[in-house]
Amino acid sequence: MRKPGWMEVVRSYYEEVVLEHTQSPFNEYLEIAVSEGKLVLNSRNANYSYGNLQKVFEEALFQLQIRRRNVNSCLVLGLGAGSVVKSLRDKFRIKAPVDGVELDPEVIRLGKEWFGLGEIEGLSVFNMDANEFLEKNAKKYDLYAGAILISNDQPLDNLDGNLTKFKILTKSITGSPTFDFDNFIIKNDFIKLSTALTSFKAQSVETHKVALSWETAMEINSDYFVLERSRDSINYIQISKIKAAGESSNKITYQFVDETPSFGTNYYRLKLIETDKKEQVFIPQSVVISDANVPFGVFPNPVITPEFYVKVKNTEESELSLFDINGRNIAFEKNTITDNILKVIPSEGLNLGMYVLKVKNAGSVKEHKVIVFK
Fold this sequence. Notes:
By secondary structure, this protein is mainly beta. It is built from five helices and 27 strands. It folds into three domains: 6-193, Rossmann fold (3-Layer(aba) Sandwich), CATH 3.40.50.150; 196-289, Immunoglobulin-like, CATH 2.60.40.10; 297-372, Immunoglobulin-like (Sandwich). A five-stranded parallel beta sheet has the order 7-6-5-8-9, with helices on one face. Helix 2 (52-63) packs across helix 3 (83-91). The N and C termini lie far apart (59 Å).
């Protein structure tokens, strides 16, 4: 299997690097390129395999909770270079046999040479037209997934005879200068994805903060996004609500900074609430917050939440006292987060103003001013 060189990979983070271009009777232009370190297959006007198209399929499969379903057979129409099958195998651990149908033999060749299409276990590749395949094959499938060109003479529902449980369909729109697609439709009333999320990222920035960003390729009936955070990936709390575009056919990027993540692993979940109150939940992301770069003292400071943290030399040997500006001792609960981080939870709500936290450690006493904003 062919691979890009390390110089092409590095360049791809600045610009898309084309490694091979060719043509076929079905596609006047095909290219293998490296984009942000990853191989993609593109036609002149669209992402053909891997890239954003794969991300959209993965989001739909996540929405279906595909790993919890009994999938014993799969059909992929518009196999491309095999990105959907790779997602089923590697990300969702679906080991069921897959029949993949691809009309263009040149696409199959590129898939085998650059993406290991011929090495995917349990995949049978059929080089033929999708409609012809369906007419000749009476087999029933548990899962159908396909990127199918929809035209006036090819209605969307002409595939029902071969499908038994659930399916994913995308519409490919030609004639656009960039890749475009219509909304996902999942039959049997499982899910309808009207907004296509192409990325959702979470990364630690500065000191004890997490930057979150997500991108949509199109939006239909989107009302607002909800960001949630969890320590165990099960129980989530809302940390932000952000207005969505509503209707858009352009790429839109959203951003938010979590100022108060917890130490250790933080899980972030993104939800989209549509105008009809239907809800989409996207694949969670995780970020690990370390105390290595946190300075000694109180943080966040000013305090905007019911609790705050303090970094000390040794949590087991540190004694804490909290006072208001009049010297009144305030009771609090103290939780050990790491060997150097303590979480302080006052027993009563702190009002707007200044407080003093005294830290006694190994005979020395340090005073830290705590500013409370509410």
